[in-house]
Request: fold
Amino acid sequence: MRRTTWYALMTVALAGWTIAGAIAWLTVAMLGWFGVMLLGLAIIVIALRVELDEEFPGTGAYGSAHIMRRQLEQQSEGPPEARLARFAARLEHHRVLYIVRTVGIALALLGLNL
Reply:
């Protein structure tokens, strides 16, 4: 990756986190601990939505059974090394989502109890 591309990506990421932080700060400032609970619930919903969208693309659309069947076939075909590599990548992705959901649950419980 070229250095200018990396700088552009970091600038976009920093701007996004700044906007998200400002929205979170305003929510908590206006609503107090109820705002903390709302932020936790929003994090949980977004994390679950990301997980469901990546696990089952095309659900609710015509032919979704075909898409899920093809995805299952792709997971079970190929040499064992390729299957293990896909499984390791999926576990790594789920680990990140687990951490995000845990933070969301902690925020929701903290806001609910205080």
Q: What stands out?
A: The mean pLDDT is 80.
